[in-house]
Please model this.
Amino acid sequence: MTLQKVDRVVFYAFTHDYLLDGEKTLIGITGLMKKHGLSPNYSRVDEATLQHAADLGTEAHEAIEAYCDGLPVPETPLIKSFKKLGLNIIATEYLVTDFEIVASSIDLVAKVDENTVDLIDMKRTSTVHKDALSAQLGFYKVFFEAINPDIKVRNCYCLPIKKGNKDDILKDTCSKLVQIEPLDEDTINAVLQAEREGRIYHKEGEDENALYVKNTIEGFLSVGFADSLRLIADLQAQVKEVEESIAGAKEQIYNEMLAKGVDKIEVDGVSITLKKPYETTRVDSKALQTDFPEVYERVTKTSTAKGNITIKIK
Model:
């Protein structure tokens, strides 16, 4: 299998520009996606944090790509775990373009058979953002098959790189491939047409505000905030478990004291007082509102509770 080489487009790493025929600058796919709201919004993440995450992601990518290109690389957990995936990589950083608007490089192209390949994008993030990857790999698939008309893309995948340490890659490992359904060609063409016409693409009926918030949250998660959120969720689970244990212990002590007729005990500086069952009287607010609405209106007080968020990790 021989892949067609795109000679008309040159990538300049020091400026991160793609130049078509030595004259026209093409936008990168990630830049196009960001412009049209197809990727996580990082605008609220400080630049230093973003750059640090990007640099580490690049290091991990380069280590795997160097191994695939046959260069000598250290046997780190990252490389060992990559080998176990058993992929037949035939190209790294394979450049694709529409020769008009956009260009980018596919991280890994894996051979399936003489007429079929899989496309793989590597991500060193805490969360696999499938919507953004669907768009990114959708562009890759459309452009790849246009450049290589005799070769079909079987599947598209994300290769998640699990962080062993968020501040270096020495203990990073490769997780199993995650299959991503690529964005359909009609939508890809619609985004490109919006770019030609100088307008922002969005789906019909799409809530742009909700999409902005979702993309902003994904941006936070992509640079490591997911680790903090998982810690919060873990601590919440631990608190719940402790509270349930305390409630069980209190119930057992209560039953013992009630059965033995003990009202109070003190042991090792701990004082425990028995509070026997008692009757309480409360106002049935629903009945009061229904039967005496004027009284209900006069005696009720409205206050504003502080807002918050609920975090659950799936």
